[in-house]
């Protein structure tokens, strides 16, 4: 009898947990549950065969301890392949649900802000004035906005570089606005790339920026899913069969062994070699600080050395830029696709737009275009009483021919540049067929793959012979707004699904980390990575007081501190016009600890305060005593680091409600951002009811890092 197979189970899952899952979610009676065999994060459960299909449908993608599990039953490859259309139809349906929820939440946020008399929200900025405007790249205009009151900080918001926005004049319907892209953000201003300079009839107009949906990206995702679903008799169809579990991934017959390279450690070399020798798909699992992007760059360098073409992608502009920077440092000819405003200034000269503009042939094309426009203008002004027969038509025909020549020259230049590149770098959603045509690549690499939904990953899959996914499924998954889409599995990344399907056959984990003091690293290593991580000797014992100008005291010499606020009346509050939470006393305490660190000599730029709730982030910004100290959400800090991090957990209530702190992957991110000093502030009575936080509290206590808030006051 084929067993029910449950994959991607949370660590320490017990047989009792599985029994409850089968009864409560699967609807199975207890006496129908047979033997349960646990194999790491997989369980094989004996159940009557007639219930298998129903259980797979009910359990696949369901959430257990805030992790999505996979359910399947053993069958022949042909039987598993029969579900390919269902898989793609499901992704299409869930993507539509998510798009509708995104639109609903955007409108709801604007409505609440209007009712509260507060124009700005997490996704919008109101009451802005134009500070400056100047010519940008590709004929675009860069406009700098700031608060109407000079020298005022902008409210906290989530409009990051590369975010699509809609600019509108206050009091004018947003439908009449102009679409643009955030090019730069600072504490007091935000710069937006627009197709033209905004204009107004008002004497002193005020403006607003609202988050705009990426409709073009969604269209490309949908087209990619439909193309993959219908593929027959081509490489895409073969890859699809592997990625939906229809057949097992294969290795090449003659494996490549990397030459000696001191820049890679043993686990990094192992990961690169597996990726080089995989015929279909492989995974580089990069826990915090383990040099994942460095490893990906080494893989790409090895592929380029074999004369392979590479498409390097990530879901975010910052992720693509980080990878591009490493590739350029190695002398690789890489071109960055996408809007130049979304690219770091130091890398813009490597964007296709700027390379095209700088090409001498394009300067000729621009001259032809100007002459064509002049001819068109001349033909419109031609007013001789008796013009020569066909004179206007000849002018227009000549102008049209000049325009066509200009377009042909520009297209040739684009083709030459793309053909000369060893690597093309782009965000997943910015891959544009009209620009890169039908080009195919030997390898597609997706960095930060766990932060992308699966539909976006199919865009580069249309163009590659094999795929490498790099990321960490033990950190935050892609952001899903719709609870329905989340519940049905849209938040399960392609990387996580591949690890669940094929495990160590295609996956290599990086195990030496170069960021954290050993004591900061150890808890996450035990909780998420089978206690396999090792701190490199260069960081294993480094402390704040080892930095220049930082004096040695108890706070700077010890790597860990937990401050327990239980019983102190540090009660959480719900934001008046939203669902977010804040904790005033905890925010004040966080700033007191920050001021102590600053007084000890730490550079403000080396310190950050992070919190899981947007309302707490806004409150911390309002209380800010030093503008150089960075304040952000946990989600916004993924992939980044500071010498010292203070975490405000916020939740403090008599019922032990912890909200999305229950997604422990968020805490894995938070706990692994600090290099030398980690301070956590929280209420043990509230969080201690959850097994993960109970173990975290035990860890701090065993390390001698536990402090009561009463000790802080004394």
Write up what this structure looks like.
The chain is of the alpha/beta class and 714 residues long. The protein folds into 5 domains: 71 residues, RRM (RNA recognition motif) domain (Alpha-Beta Plaits); 95 residues, Beta Barrel (Elongation Factor Tu (Ef-tu), domain 3), CATH 2.40.30.270; 179 residues, Rossmann fold, CATH 3.40.50.300; 63 residues; 201 residues, Rossmann fold (3-Layer(aba) Sandwich). α4 packs antiparallel against α5, α8 packs across α9 and α11 runs antiparallel to α12.
Keywords, separated by commas or semicolons:
seven-stranded parallel beta sheet, Alpha-Beta Plaits, globular, alpha/beta, 714 residues, six-stranded antiparallel barrel
Task: Break the fold down into its secondary structure elements and pairings.
Blueprint: E1 4-7, H1 15-24, E2 36-39, E3 42-45, H2 52-59, E4 63-64, E5 67-68, E6 70-73, H3 77-81, H4 84-115, E7 124-135, E8 141-147, E9 164-169, E10 178-185, E11 190-194, E12 207-211, H5 215-230, H6 235-243, H7 266-277, E13 281-285, H8 292-305, E14 310-314, H9 317-329, E15 334-336, H10 352-358, H11 360-381, H12 391-420, E16 423-427, H13 433-436, E17 441-446, H14 454-461, E18 464-471, H15 483-487, H16 494-502, E19 507-509, E20 512-513, H17 518-528, E21 534-535, H18 554-557, E22 560-564, E23 573-574, E24 581-582, H19 584-599, E25 607-611, H20 614-622, E26 630-633, E27 642-648, H21 664-671, E28 674-682, H22 684-687, H23 691-702, E29 706-708, H24 709-713
Parallel strand pairs: 13-18, 13-19, 14-16, 14-17, 15-16, 17-18, 20-21, 22-28, 22-29, 25-26, 25-27, 27-28
Antiparallel strand pairs: 1-3, 1-6, 2-3, 4-5, 7-8, 7-12, 8-11, 9-10, 9-12, 10-11, 23-24
Helix pairs in contact: 4-5, 5-14, 7-8, 8-9, 11-12
């Amino acid at each position: 009898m084929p067993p029910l197979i449950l994959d991607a189970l949370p660590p320490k899952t017990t047989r009792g947990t599985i029994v409850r899952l089968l009864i409560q979610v699967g609807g199975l009676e207890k006496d129908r549950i047979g033997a349960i065999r646990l194999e790491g994060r997989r369980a094989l459960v004996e159940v009557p065969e007639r219930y298998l299909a129903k259980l797979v449908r009910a359990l696949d993608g369901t959430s257990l301890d805030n992790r999505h599990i996979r359910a399947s039953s053993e069958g022949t490859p042909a039987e598993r392949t029969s579900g390919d259309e269902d898989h793609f139809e499901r992704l299409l349906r869930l993507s539509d649900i998510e798009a509708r929820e995104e639109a609903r939440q955007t409108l709801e946020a604007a409505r609440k802000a209007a009712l509260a008399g507060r124009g700005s929200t997490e996704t919008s900025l109101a009451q802005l004035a134009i500070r400056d405007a100047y010519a940008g790249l590709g004929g675009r205009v860069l406009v700098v906005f700031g608060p109407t009151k000079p020298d005022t900080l902008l409210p906290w918001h989530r409009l990051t570089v590369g975010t699509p926005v809609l600019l509108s004049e206050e009091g004018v319907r947003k439908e009449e606005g102009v679409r643009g892209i955030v090019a730069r953000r600072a504490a007091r201003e935000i710069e937006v790339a627009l197709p033209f300079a905004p204009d107004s009839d008002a004497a002193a107009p005020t403006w607003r920026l609202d988050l705009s949906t990426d409709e073009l990206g969604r269209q490309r995702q949908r087209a990619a899913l439909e193309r993959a679903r219908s593929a027959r008799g081509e490489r895409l169809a073969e890859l699809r069969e592997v990625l939906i579990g229809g057949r097992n991934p294969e290795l090449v017959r003659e494996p490549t062994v990397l030459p000696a390279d001191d820049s890679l450690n043993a686990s990094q070399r192992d990961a690169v070699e597996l990726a080089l020798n995989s015929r279909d798909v492989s995974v580089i699992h990069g826990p915090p600080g383990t040099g994942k992007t460095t490893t990906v760059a080494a893989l790409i360098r090895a592929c380029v050395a074999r004369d392979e073409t590479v498409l390097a992608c990530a879901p975010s502009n910052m992720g693509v830029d980080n990878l591009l920077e490493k590739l350029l440092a190695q002398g690789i000819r890489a071109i960055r696709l996408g809007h130049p405003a979304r690219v770091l200034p130091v890398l813009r000269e490597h964007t296709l737009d700027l390379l095209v503009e700088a090409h001498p042939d394009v300067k000729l094309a621009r001259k032809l275009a100007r002459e064509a426009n002049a001819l068109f203008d001349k033909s419109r002004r031609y007013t001789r009483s008796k013009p020569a027969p066909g004179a206007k038509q000849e002018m227009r025909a000549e102008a049209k021919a000049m325009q066509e020549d200009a377009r042909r020259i520009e297209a040739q230049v684009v083709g030459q540049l793309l053909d000369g590149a060893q690597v093309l770098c782009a965000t997943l959603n910015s891959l544009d067929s009209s620009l890169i045509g039908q080009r195919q690549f030997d390898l597609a690499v997706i960095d930060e793959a766990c932060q992308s939904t699966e539909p976006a990953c199919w865009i580069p899959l249309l163009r590659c012979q094999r795929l490498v996914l790099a990321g960490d499924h033990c950190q935050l998954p892609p952001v899903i707004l719709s609870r329905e889409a989340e519940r049905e599995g849209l938040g399960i990344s392609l990387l996580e699904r591949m690890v669940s399907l094929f495990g160590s056959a295609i996956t290599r984990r990086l195990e030496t980390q170069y960021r954290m003091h050993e004591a900061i690293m150890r808890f996450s290593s035990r909780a998420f990575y089978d206690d396999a991580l090792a701190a490199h000797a260069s960081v294993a014992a480094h402390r704040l007081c080892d930095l220049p100008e930082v004096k040695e005291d108890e706070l700077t010499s010890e790597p860990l501190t937990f401050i327990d606020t239980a019983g102190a009346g540090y009660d959480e509050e719900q934001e008046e016009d939203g669902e977010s939470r804040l904790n005033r006393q905890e925010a004040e305490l966080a700033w007191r600890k920050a001021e102590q660190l600053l007084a000890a000599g730490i550079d403000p730029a080396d310190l950050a305060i992070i919190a899981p709730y947007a309302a707490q982030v806004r409150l911390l910004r309002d209380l800010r005593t030093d503008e150089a100290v960075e304040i952000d959400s946990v989600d916004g800090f993924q992939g980044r680091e500071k010498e010292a991090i203070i975490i405000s957990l916020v939740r403090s209530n008599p019922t032990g409600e912890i909200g999305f702190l229950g997604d422990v992957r968020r805490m894995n991110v938070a706990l692994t951002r600090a290099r030398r000093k980690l301070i956590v502030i929280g209420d043990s009575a509230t969080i201690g009811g959850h097994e993960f936080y109970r173990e975290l509290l035990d860890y701090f206590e065993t390390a001698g890092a536990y402090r009561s808030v009463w000790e802080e006051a004394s």
